[in-house]
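Homework help board

Subject: predicted structure for assignment chain

Our instructor gave us this sequence and asked us to write out the predicted structure in token form, then describe one feature. I got the tokens but I'm not sure how to describe them. Can anyone check?
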Amino acid sequence: MEVDPSYMRRRLEASLGIGVVSFVGPFVVASLVAYFVLDWSTRASLITGTALSTTSLAVVYAVLVERGLTDTGAGKLLMSATFVTDLCTALALSAIFIKPNLWFPAFLVVSLALILVLPRLAPWFFGRYGDRVIEPEIKLVFACLLLLMVLADASNGHAVLPAFVLGLVMSRHYAEHREEQKRLRVVAFAFL
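My token output:
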């Protein structure tokens, strides 16, 4: 997705402020209503709060693209704030559902390695193998996501959190390589 990391860094306070408030406000209200008014269990209340406090990065992104707002300050801020909101959702869901096992350290190490290595490896890989009919750029991204999902499943973790961060650290590369981004966008939105 088109979260601009340098813009997010420059507007970190606003991005965090809007994103955290847009998560925490509905999370607290929905959780309290579910717990005290509906008399649900603590876990069910937390799940309710999480489910009702998230935004859809894909929907916000699609609307901004359709309206031509992705390159405006407001569009970049909305994308950054929505990213923060969804990151909070992923953290909350991980905290609620995670039951780590012996595979969890491997999942953490691989997640961290992908987040640190892929942005450095991608330019070389895409330069060497890119622009071919078999779409190696897309295959590399999906191979990384598949690896995260397999390890997350084996470790009782959740792949969405490292996948989100991986998307953020790769966004600079895709901002510089718009054709790759468009091809990946087509495939990603085909799954939605």
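Reply (TA_rk): Your tokens look well-formed. For the description, you could write something like this. The chain has a mean pLDDT of 89. That's the kind of observation they're looking for.
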